[in-house]
Design brief:
Blueprint (H helix, E strand, L loop, with lengths): L4 E12 L14 E12 L1 E4 L3 E2 L4 H17 L4 E3 L13 H6 L4 E9 L6 E9 L4 E9 L8 H17 L9 E7 L5 E7 L6 E3 L5 E7 L5 E7 L5 E7 L5 E7 L2 E6 L5 E7 L2 E6 L12 E6 L5 E6 L6 E6 L6 E2 L11 E6 L6 E7 L2 E7 L7 E2 L5 E7 L5 E8 L2 E8 L5 E3 L6 E6 L8
Parallel strand pairs: 3-5, 3-6, 4-6
Antiparallel strand pairs: 1-2, 6-7, 7-8, 9-10, 9-31, 10-11, 12-13, 13-14, 14-15, 16-17, 17-18, 19-20, 20-21, 21-22, 23-24, 24-25, 25-26, 27-28, 28-29, 29-30
Helix pairs in contact: 1-3
Length: 438
């Protein structure tokens, strides 16, 4: 068997002062917070240099770099270096690679599709433990300077993840939208690949932009802008055509998000309070509490949101059809226990949010019923979590001595990496898989 590596997996152990006391909805009683770790096996993988026919050497090198980075950032494999003394010519020596600690071997070659000038990338995944060729597939590639080149290779990376994990989703063929401040009191949108490459600035026409949110098919982004007079507009941008649609304008429009069926929900200020409404439908929340930041369960039957009925932000879950709300964050009277910005996992099993811990904002996750609360960060001030489509990675903003940056965290291994650095960035949203042609 391949050795792979074992990594520390961070979780949060919460214990009530009284043994066996329930965690969800708990009002009083001291809580003990402590990080716990366990070993998790990560299989070794070798990504061999891409073999390219004459004239395609630069293309092969670019493809190899993207594949290697994507598979590393998937956090599902321990990417092993290729020893200088090991020859790569001829059929793979399965037994030798396995002795070096590898479980998987990825090989690839680039040639020209017959009768065309289109580069053809053939990728093979080898199971070194059982000594078999697991999968092989050919992919057409655009030229290295084409707009869709990097995303085409990202899709190949996700295909390899799918093969090696028995059908689990990858995150390479995704993008992250965020707000970048210009330093002069205004801001704009930035789209960036999940590996930090291919940044794209999007002008929004307003002084400030807030809360970008991808549609379920990743072809549109909703966001709000604030003009010079202080008024807000909710805008929908079509990423394929570039067209824009103003959905709603008013004195206070915030935190748009998409329901699983493609409808837009957002927070709207009405009569001194803020309520959550659905476009062309009606309000989901009423009353005097300030309600905003909705996030919907994958089946569309429930939503999480933040509200302040006790004059302190907390995170709640309630049915879309109506009914009582259940608080899933921790509230202690006369203590700084604010919680905000929930995001429901695409797997449906966890809700991420930010909350104060020792007077600093940090990232937590919790079951939709409020149980099994876990603290994931301890750096700077960490807020605005957004799930990747694989349900195991989060993107979030963090303010520390180096500025306001955006980070990516694997909630299983605890591994984190900066997506942006040294910038005034925040309010990230992680896209679903980007469809071909986008």
């Amino acid at each position: 068997m391949g050795r792979g590596r074992r990594v520390a997996v961070a979780g949060l152990a919460l214990a009530a002062a009284a043994a066996g006391a329930p965690l969800g909805g708990q009002e009083g009683g001291a809580l003990r917070l402590g990080l716990t770790y366990e070993a998790r096996y990560v299989p070794g993988m070798v990504v061999a240099p891409v073999s390219a026919s004459a004239g395609f050497e630069d293309l092969g090198a670019a493809v190899g770099d993207i594949l290697r980075t994507d598979l590393d950032y998937s956090d599902r494999f321990d990417i092993l270096a290729v020893p200088d003394t090991l020859t790569l010519s001829g059929p793979p020596n399965y037994a030798l690679w396995n002795q070096l600690g590898a479980v998987w071997l990825v090989t690839a070659d680039i040639s020209v599709a017959p009768g065309t000038q289109t580069p053809l990338l053939r990728v093979s995944l080898h199971d070194l433990v059982h000594g078999v060729l697991e999968n092989v597939q050919a992919f057409s590639l655009p030229s290295v300077d084409a707009a869709g080149f990097r995303m085409s290779v990202h899709r190949v990376s996700d295909r390899i993840v799918f093969w090696a994990t028995g059908g689990q989703r990858g995150i390479a063929a995704t993008r992250i939208a965020l707000r970048r401040s210009d330093g002069n009191g205004s801001s704009h949108l930035l789209l960036i690949d999940s590996d930090g490459g291919n940044p794209q600035r999007i002008e929004t026409g307003g002084r400030n932009v807030y809360s970008p949110a991808f549609s379920p098919d990743a072809t549109r982004i909703a966001y709000t802008i604030q003009d010079e007079t202080g008024y807000f507009s909710l805008v929908e941008l079509n990423l394929i055509t570039g067209s824009r649609r103003t959905v709603r304008s008013g004195r206070l429009i915030q935190t748009p998000t998409w329901m699983p069926d493609g409808r837009l929900a957002y927070a709207e200020g009405v009569g001194g309070t803020t309520r959550i409404v659905v476009e062309n439908d009606g309000p989901l929340t009423e009353g005097r509490a300030q309600s905003l930041n909705p996030s919907f369960s994958p089946d569309g039957t429930s939503f999480a949101y933040e509200a302040d009925p006790a004059n302190e932000q907390q995170v709640y879950v309630r049915p879309v059809s109506g009914g009582p709300a259940r608080r899933i964050s921790i509230y202690h009277p006369r203590e700084d226990t604010n919680a905000a910005g929930p995001d429901w996992s695409p797997n449906g099993d966890r809700i991420a949010y930010s909350a104060l811990s020792d007077r600093r904002w940090q990232i937590f996750t919790v079951n939709p019923d409020g149980t099994d609360r876990r603290m994931l960060t301890r750096r700077g001030e960490s807020e605005d979590p957004s799930w990747a489509p694989d349900g195991r990675h989060l993107v979030f903003s963090s303010v520390d001595s180096q500025g306001s940056t955006v980070w990516i965290l694997d909630v299983f291994t605890g591994r984190s990496r900066p997506l942006t650095a040294g910038r005034l960035d925040g309010l990230p949203d992680w896209s679903p898989p980007i469809p071909p042609g986008s």
